[in-house]
Amino acid sequence: MVIHGFEIGEYPVHNARLWKAKTGKTLKHSIFEFYSKLYHAQNRTVYIGDESLLSQKVKETFIATIWCFQTITLLWIPQLAIKNWAENRTIWEIIGFLRLDNISSELGITFEYFYLSIIMIFIIVLCIIVLILLDYLSQNIPNLVISALRWIFDLWKTAFLTPSLTLYSVFLKYNFSSKGHISAYKNNNDPADFELNAAWQFVIILTMTLIFVLIISYEEFIGEIRHSVSIKVLKAKAHSKVDVHIAIFMYFSPILYAITNEDFMVYFQLFMMIVSLILIAEIMIFLPYFSLCYCFIKILGLFAIALVSFGFILGYLMDNSLVIILVAIILGPFLAFFALQFTLKLQNKLSVNVPETLSGIESAYQLEKSLRCSLCSNDAEHKEQIINLYEAFFNKAGSLKNKLQLIWAANYCLFTLKDESLAKVKLSRIKNILEWNLEADFQEYLINNTIQDSLSSESSRFISYLQQLHLIKTSDINLCINLLKFWEEITSSKPDLDRLTKRLTWISKKMQLLANKYSQLITKFIDCREFLSLYASFMKDIILDRDKANFLGNKLKTFNADIMNSGPSQLSCFDDLSAILIISVEEDSFGQILFSNKKAKDVMKFNSPSIDGSNIMSFIPSYYCEKLKDYAIGYSHFCFSSEIDLNGGFFLELPSEYLIECTGKASITTIENFLVFILIFKQSQKKNKIALLSENGEILCYSKYFAEMAGKENNNLIGCNIKNIFNETEQYLANNGTTSESRLICSSIHACNIEIFYAAFISGCEEIQRWENKSSEWLPDKKRKNKKTSHDSLDLLVHEYPNKGIKNEYEGKVSFNSEMNLKSGKNKIHEITEKRFSENFSEEKSESWQNKKLINLVASSSRKINILHAAFILSVKNI
After folding, report:
1. Residue 330 class from Cβ within 10 Å (0-12 exposed, 13-18 middle, 19+ buried)?
2. How far apart, in whole angstroms, are the C-alpha atoms of residue 312 and residue 214?
3. Residue 216 neighbours by CB distance under 10 Å
4. pLDDT tens digits for range 855-875
5. Residues with Cβ < 8 Å from 223, sequence gap 6 or more?
6. H or E segment and range at residue 650
7. CB 528 within 8 A of CB 763
8. CA 19 – CA 39 distance, rounded (Å)
9. What is the dihedral of CA 801, 802, 805, 809, to 10 degrees?
10. Measured between alpha carbons, how far is 803 from 651 in angstroms, rounded to an integer?
11. I need a labelling partner for 822 at 20 to 30 A (CA). Which of 123, 229, 263, 638 fits?
12. How many angstroms separate the Cα of 818 from the Cα of each of 779, 788, 801?
């Protein structure tokens, strides 16, 4: 299973929402969802304040009282072979009062019809639930109704089950008895005979059998539901096992009672007491996986049965029925209170039972298994126990690796919790504990890690920069974990170069996103240019000294698949929809296409069945070959992924200064002598009609949808002029350029100077002058002779940029020359950019939402916007 982008273990994770009934789903799915909601209705209770907690306590007390009272109804039947039972009139009057005989007699309800009415209630409630279940197929049931149904079913198994089974045992006893009647005590103390024919016996036995089957099926079905839908597997098995055992015991004990001779009745009661104690012990074994309410009710009821049996044995031996009443009524509540306290103590002890040693995946598994019983509890008193559990794990975790796995387990359980608000309450303090401890440990790890011994001093400085990056947001667990795994892979004896490269790609993207989000990050570095220089040295130490042939052989042919299988989840978008093109930038083989997948051939429409091994220069006019080489050489000295986010999409500069608009993402990554272009297309019904044009209107490359739109899908359009394909091109663009479903993008190739392009990125607006003095350090020798100054580059950017209207509109207003102050020129470029966009876009009411996004980009950047963004904005405007 993959959590946060890396493999943790083989644990089945199923979310309950996966079973949510949707349109067209089968009845089975609807039943699964219904029972899942029915069972977990109580667990969704959030204890906020004393009122909700008091309500829960009232419910527990109410159900427990009914259970205890109805269990004592075993004493209602005079046929229990207790001597002098009917003679003790006071006892019968007490029981009759508890039984509400006065009310029943006034209503004309006799003893037998009282029990028959209970059976009818059973059947009626069952029919109501069936009707609601059928209605659930068309609409969802509110949580309040689900909770009410859960209460009703709890009352089934507590208040109604025991007296119904008691009546069932009486009927069976009558069937095996030589007597032809059943005597029952009434308020008037006149015994009555109740004749029961064979038809009534058959109906009652069939009804009770059906009820028993439903109870067993419910418990087993819920156990299966919890096993499939919820992560609480152990809790599900424990619940199902204990509930089924109790149901079997409650069903077959009346049968044994019915067929037991009066001489052996004491042995039957001994059997009842022993089985009750065994079931109590079974509940104690699975105690950590039960809620407090469940334990209290079950243990209390089983204690009551054991006490009644024990009292019967004592009364039989002592020939005194008063002992039964004393044991069952007086001593019972004290023992029940003792059982409750014992349950709480034992549950608290088991909840924080932490292993002494935690290592590797096993520690995360043990933590997750312990969290099942704590995080899934619906009792408010367990909140402090959960915090104690985490603190105990944290104290014994030891290494940073185990603490990171502790964080993973917290997130893992957070995802499995059904109640998000409860999760926030329980995990709020945990988050603080993690951050307090992890921040110091992470600093120590970065300082003392052995990787710095095998790297250059510049790479060690880069690691310290990463430390500063991490401290900006200590809760960024994904970056922390991936960095940790990245370093562990490097220091291993046989590092996996593929995994290193893929993790490196993700880390670099993550760092760029953090750098954009936290502007104060730049102030922590000496300057951006030095940071990127150290980054390049770090990459060289780690990757570039490896065997390049082995790198190509293992990586290029499986680039797309490996990213999906072992890369972080954030790179899962690299699938069959990704167009990947890897180009060599070595001096001897510059431009050679080392790898291209099927999507790349399809999207770029290369005029070759197999472009691997050929040179990309053959597909690009010679005018742009030098520009591509300048671009690639400059790029290879700074190993980073370039992504520019506009309008929720990305604009990729490929291969030099012309833009392609994609439906998803686009990025460029260089690893020394390899220039990697990656186009990531999202699943979309939109079919982009893209054509890249030269300044003369010649088509350099195009998408197949562009050819289909032009009706030239069987022709090679490379080198053709756009005017020869479409008549009245400007009118076509005016009619179709803004539609999302049918869009033609005709982009002019610009000659934006590569120096100013990189000056803006490397140094930012504040560092152009510093870059001018040092830019020759990374430019090729043959380019240094003809290297233009930054002033010329700025002049080229504003005045020679082939954007309609820019040169004429601002000619005379802005002039860059060698005598102009560079800082003043920098401010001018911002003024031009902002004024240009505000004048052209802000007042247009019918503008597209893409243009609004561009306005926001310029406005948010304000004076801090760098020339790189300005260049891209002007290029986008030109489209």
Report:
1. exposed
2. 31
3. 16
4. 333 333 322 223 333 333 333
5. 236, 237, 239, 240, 241
6. strand 649-653
7. yes
8. 15
9. 30
10. 18
11. 638
12. 21, 11, 19
DSSP H helices in 177-264: 198-229, 233-259
Residue 61 burial class via C-beta count within 10 angstroms: exposed 0-12, middle 13-18, buried 19 and up: exposed
Residue 618 CA to residue 605 CA, distance in Å, equals 13
Strand-pair category, 674-680 with 578-584 = antiparallel
Instruction: Kindly list the domain boundaries of the chain, sorted by start residue.
Output: 27-350, 449-571, 753-879
Number of neighbouring beta carbons within 10 Å of residue 523 = 7
Task: Please choose, from the candidates 5, 2, 857, the residue with its C-alpha nearest in 3D space to the C-alpha of residue 510.
Answer: 5
**What's the distance, Cα to Cα, between the start and end of the chain in Å?**
45
Q: Which residue has the higher pLDDT, 683 or 362?
A: 362
386-398 pLDDT, tens digit each: 555 555 555 555 5
Token pair of 92 as six digits: 């019968």
Instruction: Find residue 642's DSSP bridge partners.
Output: 668
Long-range contacts of 709-713 (CB under 8 A, 24+ apart): 709/742, 709/744
Structural tokens at position 581: 């093109």
How far apart are the C-alpha atoms of 224 and 534, rounded to whole Å?
A: 56
* Residues whose CB is less than 8 angstroms from the CB of residue 447 and which lie 6 or more positions away in sequence, other chains included: none
Q: Taking a C-beta distance cutoff of 8 angstroms, is the pair 274, 256 a contact?
A: no
Whether the per-residue pLDDT at 625 is higher than 50: the answer is: yes
Mean pLDDT (whole number) for 7-11? 26
What share of the chain in percent tops pLDDT 70?
5
pLDDT of 21 above 60: no
Number of H helices, E strands in the chain: 37, 14
Task: Give me the residue label for tokens 């001779």.
Answer: 261
CB 566 within 8 Å of CB 499? yes
Q: In this structure, are residues 34 and 133 in contact, taking their beta carbons and an 8 Å threshold?
A: yes
Element (H, E) at 619: none
Tell me: the pLDDT tens digits for 181-225? 333 333 333 434 334 444 454 555 555 555 555 554 444 444 443
How far apart CA 459 and CA 539 sit, in angstroms, is: 8
Instruction: Give the whole-angstrom CA distance, residue 93 versus residue 61.
Output: 25
Residues 6+ apart with CB under 8 A from 876: 646, 651, 659, 854
Cite the DSSP H helix spans in 567-712. Answer: 598-604, 622-636, 704-710
Q: List Cβ neighbours of 542 (8 Å cut-off, separation of 6 or more).
A: 455, 459, 490, 500, 504
Residue 541 corresponds to which tokens in the numbers above? Answer: 């130490």
Cis bond leading into 655, ω under 30°?
yes
Quickly state the pLDDT bin for 278 (edges 50, 70, 90): confident
Predicted pLDDT at 285: 63
| Eight-state DSSP code of residue 286 | T
Two tokens, residue 579:
């167009």
What are the distances in angstroms from CA 206 to CA 131, 170, 203, 213, 757? Answer: 22, 15, 5, 10, 87
Give the ranges where 72-160 is alpha helix by DSSP (H): 89-98, 101-106, 111-136, 143-155
DSSP state letters, 156-184: IIIIIHHHHHHHHHHHHHHHHSSSS--EE
Query: 3-class DSSP state for residue 3?
Result: strand
pLDDT tens digits for range 800-854? 333 333 333 323 323 222 223 333 333 443 444 344 334 433 333 333 333 333 3
Q: Which two tokens stand for residue 588?
A: 């001897």
**Dist. CA 253–CA 74, nearest whole Å:** 12
**pLDDT score of 470:** 40
Task: Look up tokens 């095998």; give the residue.
Answer: 454
Tokens of 828: 């001018």
Measured distance CA(194)–CA(184) in Å, rounded? 9
Q: What percent of the chain has pLDDT over 90?
A: 0
